Structure prediction request, 233 residues.
Amino acid sequence: MTDVSASPHGDVPETTEPVEGADESVDRTGADTVGHSVDHPVDEAADDSVEGSDGDDADDTGDSDDSDGEEASASRTAKRLEEEGDIAADYVEELLDISDIDGDIDIEVRNGRTYLSVIAEDGDDRLRDLVGRDGKGLEALQELARLAVLSATGNRSRLVLDIAGYRARRTTELEAEAQDAVEQVRQTGEPVHLKPMGAYERKVVHDVIAEAGLVSESEGEGPRRHVVVSTGD
Prediction:
């Protein structure tokens, strides 16, 4: 196991900011674009991350047409994301060991992000307890994993953590809710306010609304922040 600076027993960097492409899979096997939002175009892309975390990705060759430079930049990005996955996986594995919970950890790099998935072994349902109510435990663990990456590398991470398939199931639910809102707006012409949800979930909704050709925006602050779907008129 890789020795992670921000271990469960150690201090993590003092920060109150949450931290949020080449397709490439990593051996220890385990997305998203901004929805059509009229308030802040990168609001949900930043979702639970901090903008500017991709500074390492910039091509510093000074020639945007230089294919060699672009390939080198893509290679550096892929390597950095793989490193993020390894660091976060070691951190999560240590947490599981402390909790005496077994789980397989899969890592995948795609669309400029690292995705870490923890899957239960031998039907062990205790992983679901880590997800917490409405995924709040999962979000907290994801933040800790990102802080472990920040502590070890100095780079902010947009890593996405999933446990026991929660995000996949939740994404399916959110897409259905968004489609219902689309139909309601088309039938009535009136805006539809969805219930409050986290930034990652809002982004899923924004993507569905954008694909449907309608307009979505985020309103409210903190725990009351939610998506409003409308025709945009």
Q: What stands out?
A: DSSP finds six helices and seven strands in the chain.
